[in-house]
User: Fold this.
Amino acid sequence: MRYGSVCSGIEAATVAWHGLGWTPAFYSEIEAFPRAVLNVHYPNVPLHGDFTTIGADQYGPINLLVGGTPCQSFSIAGIRGGLDDDRGNLALEFLRLAQRTRPQWLVWENVPGVLSSGGGRDFGSILGGLVELGYGFAYRVLDAQFFGVPQRRRRVFVVGYLGDWRRAAAVLFKRQSLCGHPTPRRQTGEEVARGAGDCTGDNGFYGPDVSPSLKTRDYKGPSSDGTGDGAPLIPIIPKWPADVAPTMNAAFTDKQGLTDVAQPIMANGPVGGNQGGDFVACEVADTLSVGANQTTGKKSDICAQNMAVRRLTPTECERLQGFPDGYTQIPYRNKTADNCPDGPRYKALGNSMAVPVMKWIGKRIQMVEDL
Assistant:
């Protein structure tokens, strides 16, 4: 299967479909950081800019065209300009590219808000365009949490097949999914979300329901020469799991200053006070604690129980989307990979498709092809 990808981002499709033996004919992306990621991982694949300028035979014949055009104009979080917005109109440009290249298969992705944008007329226009081009189609909302990643991410997927709607339907629908078993409803809570450390299980601390994305993979503590390739980090608090990412742990200070490795707090002072510069015992990292006490001139810490505030790391976001660790950690703008800025990584991952969902769709298309 030879495919072309537009609005490629960091190429969830290629990561998902590489194991199928499919070959990318071209990518198309205009954002600087995703283009840098593609150049690092796929230097031999032609990288186009604006996909609306791709010619009919510019990259040769393709069997499949895939793309997730911008969602901002359809999202319920925006002003919902729909197809009148230049970004939303790129959905129709996707169809025009399909008209020029005439692939057998189409895969298009967007947010569920597209279903209601313009009172449903915007999505109807997109589907009507498929029919005019001769494509039979099927669409379905798929949630990434049911495909092996620990996040709730609902997206609309449209699959088209030139000349036959039944093959498109065979890709997206399974008999078990039509049995009328809705997802369990979630109740709205008013309390602060619990930290991962509040989960209890057989190990007495972290239960088996803790997401793997919050755990480190083969984390090594510092060696004697400071290379970071020493033995696995051994927790200093009993029952603290060794595979929890060090970003989950708080650092502590003593009279000699900060330790070089983030570790759980071991304190001597009472809650709310401080003795000799040591932090008091609590689950909150010192970066979340209050600064110097104006009265005593000493540092006092405020401990919050049963809550945690911490943003996800870029590596955890890669895992949430199904990418390999470090996939977006690349040399960028005269900086080495080790100094790659987090901001562009967060944005690129947030705009990407979930790899396991794309892998499932690819396998289903291959199944239909084999039959």
Notes: Confidence is low (pLDDT under 50) at residues 195-222, 232-241, 243-294. The domain at 2-182+331-370 is CATH 3.40.50.150 (Rossmann fold). The chain has eight helices and nine strands. The first helix runs from residue 12 to 17.
